[in-house]
């Protein structure tokens, strides 16, 4: 609101004399006490001890939409209240007032003009005579519409927040389900049955929120040969998972065209290097290999692109790495070196491929990495009972690492059963 | 888990980044951001000092490779100095000891 400066109360020290200041106040405060009572910004009423209204101000009459002549001497305070307000008055307000002589700030509804209900805050005090006899009840009635609306708004806000929270929880559950399904799509649903061979695999997911980048597969080639691979994409999350998917299908397609391990890895290298050239690069380590079943043994031809060396558990109880040093992480250079290795699996021998979640797991009080030597010792200490038995032992080992295992870990074991000619497969 | 801090200084041979803490999935983007804000004169060397690196996972390795691509794109080179034993072992396994020039310390890296 604008005020004309010449009507304003002068600032102290501006030189006006005291008389003129008083005159300004007087003109501002022209309201009489009666005027103040009638038009105060709250309702006033006085009732006899039986509740009969003896006096009521204009503000309250306006709220009620009632004429003074219909109210004074004819209505009781409770007649102004809604049914709920009446009940509350009878059961709580009146007894409390009688007991304590004063009741303050009670929320009730009055029957306002035009059939509306109006939330108010009521304060009443009993006026007594000099000798303590109760004479009448003075009551103030404050408009609580804004306040009630504000409370309702707060309540609505809280309900909305609770609903949003419920929704977020539901979304989270749905997202985790989708991630789990996607994760599974990066791995074979189950390993194929290979005549004369046994296979086992295991996948440990470090975090349900982050898609892992480990992958493996086993599938047939022409001429009775089988191809296998196991790899690890750098990084985590959806970006890594998209590379995992690309790597898996590229390796499968390339192997069907020409299964030579270095050729297959070179194709994957070209694909990754070109696909992500110029942007944020995407890389993976992989071992890709081919199994050639023969009478009495299985030939293994594999190549590694920066992947930890495969381990062979021999039927005689020893275990040795099949070293593939010098192979490069796939996708880094346009022309990358890959390192080949060959081995012969005899009955009872098992070839183990793993990702570095296993060897990099933290163990013991010193949180040392588990390491390759420990993996070899552990494997040599297991009875040479085939791929599935080794996978079971290793998954138990991974579980024993507890929170020392903080990365995704994939295991793939392939071998020739020692005596059982029946093909078996487990995933 | 220790937070990542990266300090940048300029040697006569080019920028030197000193990396302290963990370089992992959560922090690797910081390294990319810092590297992309650098200026590298053609023919100069970006030296990444890893003496105070506590931990580096595959996301960290990817970030180092991004730094390498960036340096090469700008006509320069990259060298890693004082690589901790654990990270050096990982670099060797994935064959990146052939891709990155490795120096025992920063002074060796900038002494060209």
Superfamily (CATH H level) name of chain B: STAS domain
Q: Could you say how many structural domains of chain A there are in total?
A: 2
Evaluate the radius of gyration of chain A: 43 Å
Number of helices of chain A: 11
The CATH architecture of chain B: 2-Layer Sandwich
Number of helices of chain B: 4
CATH class bucket of chain B: Alpha Beta
The SS-based structural class of chain B is: alpha/beta
Runs of chain A in which pLDDT lies below 50 for 5 or more consecutive residues are: 1-10
- Strand order in the sheet with the most strands of chain A: 12-11-14-17-6-18
Residue share in helices of chain B? 25-40%
Overall shape of chain A: it is: rod-shaped
- Which stretches of chain B of 5+ consecutive residues score pLDDT under 50? none
CATH topology of chain B: Transcription Regulator spoIIAA
Query: Number of DSSP strands of chain A?
Result: 18
Give an account of the 3D structure.
The complex is a heterodimer of chains A (427) and B (112). Chain A is α+β, with helices and mostly antiparallel strands and 427 residues long. Chain A has 2 domains: 17-143, PAS domain (Beta-Lactamase, 2-Layer Sandwich); 188-425, PPM-type phosphatase domain (Phosphatase 2c, domain 1), CATH 3.60.40.10. Helices cover 36% and strands 27% of the residues of chain A. Chain A is built from 11 helices and 18 strands. Chain A has helices at 18-28, 33-39, 58-64, 68-71, 83-100, 145-185, 237-257, 261-275, 356-359, 371-381, 387-400, and strands at 43-48, 53-56, 102-111, 117-128, 134-143, 198-204, 214-220, 226-233, 284-294, 297-305, 310-313, 319-322, 339-345, 350-354, 362-363, 368-369, 409-415, 424-425. In chain A, the strands form 4 sheets. Chain A has a 6-stranded mixed sheet with strand order 12-11-14-17-6-18. In chain A, helix 7 (237-257) crosses helix 8. Mean pLDDT of chain A is 89; it is low at 1-10. Chain B has one domain (5-109): STAS domain (Transcription Regulator spoIIAA). Chain B has helices spanning 28-36, 58-73, 85-93, 106-109; strands at residues 5-11, 14-23, 45-56, 77-81, 101-103. In chain B, strand 3, helix 2 and strand 4 form a beta-alpha-beta unit. The longest helix of chain B has 16 residues, at 58-73. In chain B, 44% of the residues are buried. At the A-B interface, loops of A face helix 2 and helix 3 of B.
